[in-house]
Amino acid sequence: MSVLDVEIDALTGGSADLSQYRGSAVLVVNVASRCGLTPQYAGLEKLHQRYAARGFTVLGVPCNQFMGQEPGTAEEIATFCSATYGTSFPMTQKTDVNGAERHPLYTGLVGTADAEGHTGDIRWNFEKFLIAPDGTVAARFAPQTEPEAEEIAAAVEAVLPR
């Protein structure tokens, strides 16, 4: 089973329908509005815009598990992201990424190692996972890795649909 087969709701309600991304590359990122890394939203939007026409999207997954840095309602999160950073990429419902209530999407992601060999629990907000068009997890990036970093661009380029 691919992570694209997992069911999760969209931030504003209804299904996020991850299967719609089959055949595309997706960067899944657990996000938060009140974190020191929150300015990464700007880089995520730039990355989304840079590759969207080539079959790529960023998928934001709000999470409030790290020092309560995503306390808002779905409407507050959506308003903050669009008004502050002009985000246009899709977002899911607020989700647990660690612990007993870890969402199945993250159960399918956390076994992938990043460049330093880290697997398992999400360490902080803005940890990133690149999903290849076939639904496999192609790469994992630490929270501090900026969305516009060369290693992310190279990984995205390597998995973009041909």
UniProtKB/TrEMBL annotation:
> What is the active site of this protein?
35
SUPFAM superfamilies tied to this protein: Thioredoxin-like
- InterPro entries per record: Glutathione_peroxidase, GPX_AS, Thioredoxin-like_sf
Q: Which GO terms describe its molecular function?
A: peroxidase activity
Protein keywords: Oxidoreductase, Peroxidase
Top-rank taxon, per record:
Bacteria
Signal sequence range = none
What does the similarity note say? Belongs to the glutathione peroxidase family.
Which protein are we looking at? Glutathione peroxidase
